[in-house]
Amino acid sequence: MSTEDLPTNWGRWGDHDQLGTLNLIDDAARARAALEVRDGVSVSLARATRPTALTAGLSPVATPARMPAPVLQMVNFNGFDPHAITDSLLINTHNAGLTHLDAVTHQPVDGSVYPGVPLREAVTPTGVGHGSADAFTGGILTRGVLLDLAPDGDSLPQETLVGAEDLDAALERTGTSLHPGDAIVIRGGWDIDQPLDQAVPGLSLDAVGWLHEHDVSVYVGDIGDARPLLTPMPLHKVALARLGMPLVDVAQLDGLASTCADRQRWSFLLVLAPPRILGTTGLPVNPLAVF
Amino acid sequence: MSTEDLPTNWGRWGDHDQLGTLNLIDDAARARAALEVRDGVSVSLARATRPTALTAGLSPVATPARMPAPVLQMVNFNGFDPHAITDSLLINTHNAGLTHLDAVTHQPVDGSVYPGVPLREAVTPTGVGHGSADAFTGGILTRGVLLDLAPDGDSLPQETLVGAEDLDAALERTGTSLHPGDAIVIRGGWDIDQPLDQAVPGLSLDAVGWLHEHDVSVYVGDIGDARPLLTPMPLHKVALARLGMPLVDVAQLDGLASTCADRQRWSFLLVLAPPRILGTTGLPVNPLAVF
Amino acid sequence: MSTEDLPTNWGRWGDHDQLGTLNLIDDAARARAALEVRDGVSVSLARATRPTALTAGLSPVATPARMPAPVLQMVNFNGFDPHAITDSLLINTHNAGLTHLDAVTHQPVDGSVYPGVPLREAVTPTGVGHGSADAFTGGILTRGVLLDLAPDGDSLPQETLVGAEDLDAALERTGTSLHPGDAIVIRGGWDIDQPLDQAVPGLSLDAVGWLHEHDVSVYVGDIGDARPLLTPMPLHKVALARLGMPLVDVAQLDGLASTCADRQRWSFLLVLAPPRILGTTGLPVNPLAVF
Amino acid sequence: MSTEDLPTNWGRWGDHDQLGTLNLIDDAARARAALEVRDGVSVSLARATRPTALTAGLSPVATPARMPAPVLQMVNFNGFDPHAITDSLLINTHNAGLTHLDAVTHQPVDGSVYPGVPLREAVTPTGVGHGSADAFTGGILTRGVLLDLAPDGDSLPQETLVGAEDLDAALERTGTSLHPGDAIVIRGGWDIDQPLDQAVPGLSLDAVGWLHEHDVSVYVGDIGDARPLLTPMPLHKVALARLGMPLVDVAQLDGLASTCADRQRWSFLLVLAPPRILGTTGLPVNPLAVF
Question: Which InterPro entries does the UniProt entry name for this protein (chains A, B, C, D) (predicted)?
C-alpha cells in the first residue's frame, strides 16, 4: 500500500487542528456515555506501576531494576522532625511499564506531525508547541466498548496480527454497536513490557482502517503495534500520526474484562483525566471504566 | 481546643484502614453521581501547569523561574532523525503550582499517620508503605457540590477565615443538600501559589468540623489552609490527618463557577483519576466536573 | 577563509585518535611542569557554583533562579534520625555557570567529530562512544602559562576580538616562552554567564591559529568564543573540533592573576582532574594552578 | 571504649573550623609534595564509572541495572541537526560505585557534626551550611604514601580487620616515613561495591588511632569501614566525624600499586580537585598520584 492510500484525517478538521479524532466527541456523546452508568462500579484500566528509587540516600539499598524505569521516586528530606512528608517523581511517559496517552507529536511521519505541521516547528528543546498532550488536558469522556479478543482470561497467540474481521467478530459478541466518537478498548491478554526481541501480537493496518471507518475517537489497548514491527506501524504511524487518534498504550484490562463478562455488558463510561501539564509528547493516565 | 476534642476518624474503619473518608463512597454513591450528567459538558478543575526546562541542552535558553518548580521537563534525545519524540517529567507533587491529591501520610501528627500508624513504619527512603496515594489509584467518582464563597467571579478578602456558617450559607445558595460521600468543592477565588509571607484566606477548624458532620468524602479547593498558618492547620492536620479526608490542593475553579452559574446548578459528577503510581505521598490530578 | 584552509589536526595522530592535543603531553612535559612548583601555593581556577534546590520537599522555599541551572541539588531523606546525611547533584555540564571541560564530540562539524568520525557513530541516546571526556579521565598535568589580557584586575572592552598579536604581546609581558604541550590560560576579566544577546569578547580565528602554531595542549579561559558568534566559532568549531584541543570553559581567573602578579611569574603546574565518569560530552572540572 | 576516650580533633582548630585535618597541609607541605614528581608519570586512583541511562527516550533499550546507580546520564535533545551535543549527569555522590570525597557533615555523631556544630544548624533541605565539601573546593595537594596491605596484586582475606601494627608493617615495607599532613592511601585489593550482607575487610579503631598519631591529613582507600559494621564505625564515625579527616571512599588502587612496585617507591604527589560545587555533603573526585 503506498503512502497516499493510507487512511488519513489530515485536513479533515483544518490545517492546524490539535484535537484529531477527539473532534468526534461532543456534549451529546458525553451525555450518552454517562447513561452507561447504572450500578456505579468503577474499574481502573491502568497498570499499577511501582517506582524505582532514584536516589534513596545511601547506596546499600541498591536493588536490580530495568533502566530506564517508567517512574523514579525520591522521598524528600524536609528537615528533621518534618511536619510533612513529600516525594518527587521522574516520569518517563512512553515507557512500556506505564499506562500513558500518546499525543500526535510523539510520532512524526515524513518530518511532519498531524495534520501536516513540520516537526521542526512543533518541537523545541523546551517543549512541544503543536500537537502536544494539551489536547487531552481538559479530560476525555466518552462511551467505551471492550473488544475482548481472548475471552475468559485467555491471551492471543504470540504471533497474532489482529485484522478487521477479528474486530467485527468481537464487536458482534458484545451485542452492541458503535457510535461515532466511541472509544475502543482492545484486550489481547498480553503484558507488552517485554524485551524488544520478543514477538508480541498487535493490530494490522486493516484493523486501523476499521477504527477509521467506525469513527473511533480513542484507542485503548493492552496490545498495540505488533513486534517485530510492521512498516508503517499501524497504530503509531497511521492511527496516531495520520488519523490523529490518541492512543492509550500499555493498559491493564483483565479487571475490565471480568467486570464486563460478569454483567454481559461490554459498554461503559470511559474517563481519561491525565494531569494538566502543558507542552508534552504524552502523559501518564489512569483510564476509568464506569458501569 | 485540646487534641482530644479534635474531630477524628481514627479507628472508625479499623486500625489499618487506608481509605479514610473514601469509605463513604459506595456503588450507590457513584451511580447517583452519574445521574448528575445531563448535557455532557465537562470542566477541568486543574491548573494548567507549564513545565520548567530541566536541562534543555545548551545554556543560552536560561530563563527566570521559581525553583523548586512544580514540574520540570526534558525533551529526550532519541537519536538523529528520530522516529519518535519523547519527553520526561520531574514532578514535585506538593508544589503550590500544581493541582494534586494529598495522601494521608503526607501529614503526620504526633509521629503517626491516619489512623494511628507510626510514621517510621509508614515511610522509608524507598517509598510509602502505609497511607500512600494507592488509596486513590482505583479512581474516585462521586457527586460534587460547589460552594462558591465569592460568587460572580469575585474573590474572598485576604484575611478571611471561612467558618461553618459561611459553608451553610453557600450551600443554601445552591438550593441542594448533601449526601454522605459527596465531595465538596470550595471556591475562594484565589491563586495560593504565592510567597509564604503573603496572607491567604483559608478554612477554620469550625469549617472542618462542618465537613466532618456532613460526611464529606473529598475536599477540593482553590483555597485550603490559611496563611499565616493556624495551629493545628485545619485542613492538613485535621481533615487529612485525623479524618483521613483526601485533599485536592491548588484547584482552579473559575471555569467551574461560571459553568455552574450559567446552569444555576451546583452539583455534578466529579471524577478524580490520578496516575496509578504506587507508594507515593500524593499524586498530580486533573479533577473533572461533568454536567 | 574556506573550510580547507582552517587549521586542523584531523589525521595527525591517526583516524581514531581520542586524545587530540593531549598527545602533546608526555612524561617529560609532566616532570617539567612539576618543576614549576616552588612555594607550594595552590589556586583554583574554577567558579564557585551554588546549586539550585531541585526538589526541596515543600514548595514554600521557592526562590527565583535562572533555569536550566548549572547544578541542581537534592538533600536526600535517609530515614528518621539518619546516621548519615547525603545529597544528589544534577549537573548540566555545558552550562555557562559551571567551569567545565569540553570533549571533542561536544562540537561536531559537518556531521563528523574529531578526527573525522561520523557523529551518528559517536553518539547514541545512551552515551558517547567516540570522542568522549574519557580522554581526560586519567587526569591532565602540564605546565600552564597565564596570558592576562587585562592586567591589574581590568577587563577587556566588550567588543574585543583577541588576535594573535594580542597573545604575542601578553606572552612577551610574561617574560617566558612556550613549550609544545603547555596549556594556555587566557584572562579577559569577564563573566560570560550572561544573556545571549549581550556582546562578550572572545578569540579570533587568528588567535586559534596562534594556539595551533605553539602546539598548545589545553585552552583555559574566562573568555572563549565572542558573542555575537563568529562563523565558524574559533574555539569551539576550530580549536576543539578540528584541532582536538580540550577547552576549559567558564574559568574564574582573578585569583590566579593576582597570584601571578604578586610573584611576577606567569607559569605554574596546571592540574585538571575531572570525575572519572565515562561516555560524556564533557565534565565539570576544578583546574588547579600550583606555584 | 567509651565515647570520651575516642580520638578527637573537636576544638583543636576552634569551634567553627571547617578544614579539619586539612589544617595540617600548608604551603611547605605542598612544595615538599611536588618534589615527589620525578619522571612525570601520573596515575588515577578513581574507579571508571559507567553511567546508567536516566531516560534514553524510548523504552526498548531497557537494560538491567543496580539502582540507585552512582551516576545517571541523559543525552540531551538540542534540536534537529544540533550544532552541539550535550548531556546531563545525576550524581549520587556517596554511592559505592563512585570514587568520592566525604565532607564532615556526611557523618553526624550524637546530633552534631565536626567540631561540635548541631546537625540541625548545619543542614537544611536546600543544602549544607557548615561542614560541607566547600572545604575541598580549593583543591588538596599533599604528599601521598601508599600502604599496600596485599602486595603483588593480592587481596586481603574477607574478614580482615586492619590494625595499627598492620599499618606499621606496611609503612616499614615502603622504606619511607610520614610527615604531618601526608595523605595515606590504603590498598586492600577489594571492590567494596558489594551487597550489604557480604563481609568486606576494613580498618579497626586502633588503625584510626594510628592515622591520628601520625597527623594524617586525608584517607584514601579501596577499603574503608569493615562489614559487618563496627560500632562506632572507625573511619566514618571517628576519623571523619571526630578527627575531621576527609575520606576518599571507593578508590581503585591496582594501577597505583603496580606503578609503585615498578619504581620501588611508595610516595608521590597526590592531587584531589573535586568540582567546585558549594554546599554539598561530598563530591565525586578523581585523585591523581604523580611520580
Answer: KFase/CYL, KFase_sf
- Please check whether residue D226 lies inside any domain of the structure: yes
Residues A250, A157, single domain; the answer is: yes
Reading phi first (left if > 0) and then psi (alpha if -120 to 50, else beta), residue A165 is in alpha
Do D58 and D38 share a domain, yes or no?
no
Q: Tell me if residue C20 falls in helix, strand or coil.
A: helix
Mean pLDDT of chain D: 95
Cβ <8 Å between B57 and D74: no
Q: Which residues, at least 6 apart from C152, have a Cβ–Cβ distance to it below 8 Å?
A: C261
Q: Do A276 and B48 touch (CB under 8 A)?
A: yes
Partner-chain contact B124 C79, CB within 8 Å: yes
Shared-domain flag, residues A79 and A149:
no
Cα nearest neighbour of B92 on chain C: C55
Residue C199 touches partner D, C-beta closer than 8 Å: no
Give the count of Cβ contacts less than 8 A between chain B and D.
46
Chains that touch A (3 or more CB pairs under 8 A): B, C, D
Query: How many Å lie between the alpha carbon of D180 and the closest alpha carbon of chain A?
Result: 32
- Chosen from A249, A276, A283 to mutate, greatest number of chain B CBs within 10 A: A276
Task: Find the mean pLDDT for residues A138-164.
Answer: 97
Given a contact cutoff of 8 angstroms between Cβ atoms, the answer to whether D128 and D279 are in contact is yes
If asked whether residues C286 and C228 sit together in one domain, one would say yes
Grid coordinates belonging to C129: 562512544
For residue B59, name the pLDDT band (cuts at 50, 70, 90).
low
pLDDT tens digits, residue range B267-289?
999 999 999 999 999 999 999 99
Q: Are D48 and D71 in contact (CB under 8 A)?
A: no
The answer to whether residue B2 is domain-embedded is no
For A111, the domain range is: 7-47+100-290
**Is B268 inside any structural domain?**
yes
Nearest to D84 among B58, B75, B78 (CB): B58
Contact C28 D51 (CB under 8 A): no
Same domain, B174 and B243: yes
Examine residue B178 and state whether it is found in any structural domain, yes or no.
Answer: yes
Contact A9, A115 (CB under 8 A): yes
Residues in B touching A271 (Cβ below 8 Å):
139, 141, 271, 273, 288
Query: Which of the residue ranges A219-223, B54-58, C284-288 would you say has the lowest mean pLDDT?
Result: B54-58
Segment C132-154 shows an average pLDDT of 97
Contact yes or no for C68 and B62 at CB 8 A: yes
pLDDT at C59 over 60: no
C 42-71: CB under 8 A from D: 42-44, 46-51, 53, 56-58, 61, 71
The domain that holds A278 is classified in CATH as 3.50.30.50
Residue A23 bridge partners (DSSP): none
- Tell whether B11 is within 8 A of chain D (Cβ): no
Query: Do C62 and C20 belong to one domain?
Result: no
Domain count across chain C: 2
Contact A82 C56 (CB under 8 A): no
**A273 and A134 co-located in one domain:** yes
Check: CB of residue A86 under 8 Å from CB of residue B281: yes
Distance CA(B143)–CA(B135), nearest Å, equals 18
Distance between C99 CA and the closest CA of chain B, angstroms = 13
CA distance C86 to chain A (A): 6
Q: How confident is the model at residue A255 (pLDDT cuts 50, 70, 90)?
A: very high
Nearest chain A Cα distance for residue D127, angstroms: 10
A278/B48 CB distance under 8 A: yes
C239 and C131 in a single domain? The answer is yes
What's the ipTM? 0.97
Grid cell locating A137: 488536558
- For the whole model, what pTM was predicted? 0.96
